[in-house]
Specification:
There is one protein chain. The protein has 159 residues and is an alpha+beta fold. The protein has one domain (2-158). Helix content is 36%, strand content 25%. The protein contains 6 helices and 7 strands. The termini are close together. 40% of the residues are buried.
């Protein structure tokens, strides 16, 4: 049975390290999601007319090339009311794309995170933190939770 581990990181480098380690341990990319405020730029300097764009078109994660953006496929940016532009990668990105009007809370709830926790993560995202979500088998959950702690994650939640 899979569970979801969620945590907030104060910096992108710590989240990057966790993603690299999770992938090294065999956790599939399809089970890893990352969300952060979008501070990067695109080659054109602005998102497409629909408010979204793809990292492959020149968007850089947090203003630096590589990192999480280089580790996960399907990374894109979208505008979330009350927060502004965010970058999302992994399966949570698709959930958030459909929940733009509902904000981060609605997207996280659709992803199975309870409302109170979702609200906490939205506040952390507004403050500039990186939110990392991983779905893992029961034997990997405690390892993932410990890895989150080792890299400085806070507000760690297992669902």
């Amino acid at each position: 049975m899979q569970k979801t581990v969620v945590g907030a990181f104060r910096d992108q480098a710590s989240a990057d390290q966790v993603v690299r380690e999770l992938k090294h341990r065999g956790v599939a990319e399809k089970n890893i999601s990352v969300v952060a405020r979008h501070h990067g730029k695109t080659e054109s300097g602005h998102p497409g007319e629909d408010g979204t764009h793809n990292l492959s078109s020149g968007l850089t994660w947090g203003g630096t090339a590589g990192g999480v953006a280089g580790l996960l496929a399907g990374v894109g940016a979208l505008a979330i009311p009350g927060i502004g532009p965010i970058v999302a990668a992994g399966p949570l990105a698709a959930t958030l794309t459909g929940a733009v009007a509902g904000g981060i809370v609605g997207g996280l709830m659709d992803f199975g995170i309870p409302k109170a926790e979702s609200q906490r993560y939205e506040e952390r995202l507004k403050a500039g933190d990186v939110i990392l979500v991983v779905r893992a088998d029961a034997d990997e959950v405690s390892k993932a939770e410990n890895l989150f702690r080792q890299q400085g994650a806070t507000d760690i939640y297992v669902h």
